[in-house]
Amino acid sequence: MASRFNSLTSLLSLISCLFLFLSYFHGTKAQSTPPIVKGLSWSFYDSSCPKLESIVRKQLQKVFKDDIGQAAGLLRLHFHDCFVQGCDGSVLLDGSASGPSEKQAIPNLTLRLEAFKIIDDLRRRVHKDCGRVVSCSDITALAARDAVYLTGGPDYDVPLGRRDGLSFATQNATLANLVPPSASANTILTSLATKNFDATDVVALSGAHTIGISHCTSFTDRLYPNQDPTMDKTFANNLKNVCPTKDSNSTTVTDIRSPNKFDNKYYVDLMNRQGLFTSDQDLYTNSRTRGIITSFAVNETLFFERFVIAMIKMGQLNVLTGTTGEIRANCSVRNSDNSFLSSVVEEELTVLSQL
Ligand code: HEM
């Protein structure tokens, strides 16, 4: 009898331990994951396109095996999509009779052409498997997540259900929403605060510069005519070799310590005055952000946690959901301008009118 009582109490304590364990993890996830906006969901394509995430990841593994640099291009593409008019795939659209596209605005001229091709190739693979149910903006968000993970960064869930926009932003709106690399930390903090990002989000998001490259023209204002005194002298001299004049055409890496690895070395660069852009380096000069940089430089896990929070926030900026927007059949053309789609619709209408 006593032994039966003992095994019952041990079973009960085991169950309560399990409960505590589960609620602890549930609690921490809820705490560290920003709220998701109405219309997006963690399981949006679970029944309509169950293989979506594995198709994207497997294909990107192949792409990055050939050229790891493409990861940075995809991460930046998602940022430029979300900051201008929200994550609606508008940056992917080609220009039209109504005027030049977002793509043609100055900050977007240095987006990699290959990144646009990779997104539409992923779209084609996904639509082949599931039909036209997944948006280009969701594919861009997943590609950015995989770019981070496959270069050594954190893995995280992406809320899905975005729809593609029917129009692109004007050149002025694009310029107004993407701060230039010459911006001070105060300018960036003020600009990003309008999108609800705090100082920690700003520093974490800038950590994306741990991978990728930049053209000389994005930072030579710090070398010519006068050298920026906040830049390390040897670093400046090396940059002058890569970019002998203000308008040199070359490129260089944004994180000299580990340019192809998503890690916290970008913050170590900043602490050594080896940040490439004023917008990076000034985050270490500014008293509001300096401490955050040091904390990320000494604690990569903390950086990864904060980066994921900021990326999930960024990925939900002004999203279109429900019945707004559309699911594009080609990421660079809205459906009403897609001649192949229009002819299919016309054929269907003719058949219907004959019934
Ligand atoms: C907030 C202020 C930011 C400024 C001023 C800025 C500016 C720039 C500039 C000027 C370049 C180089 C472009 C070139 O000349 O080729 C660049 C590259 C890049 N940026 Fe940012 N950026 C910012 C934030 C972000 C954010 C939030 C992300 C992503 C979450 C990001 C991801 C990247 C990546 C991955 C690259 C390398 C792209 C490649 O290799 O093709 N940036 N950024």
Automatic annotation (TrEMBL):
Record the organism: Cinchona calisaya
Which N-terminal residues, if any, form the signal peptide? 1-30
Q: Domain of life of the organism in this record?
A: Eukaryota
Q: What does this protein do?
A: Removal of H(2)O(2), oxidation of toxic reductants, biosynthesis and degradation of lignin, suberization, auxin catabolism, response to environmental stresses such as wounding, pathogen attack and oxidative stress. These functions might be dependent on each isozyme/isoform in each plant tissue.
* Paired cysteines (S-S): 49-130, 82-87, 136-331, 216-243
As its record notes, the protein acts as a catalyst of: 2 a phenolic donor + H2O2 = 2 a phenolic radical donor + 2 H2O
Name recorded for this polypeptide = Peroxidase
Question: What are the GO BP annotations of this UniProt entry?
Answer: hydrogen peroxide catabolic process; response to oxidative stress
Q: What PANTHER family is this protein classified in?
A: PEROXIDASE 16-RELATED (PTHR31517:SF48), PTHR31517
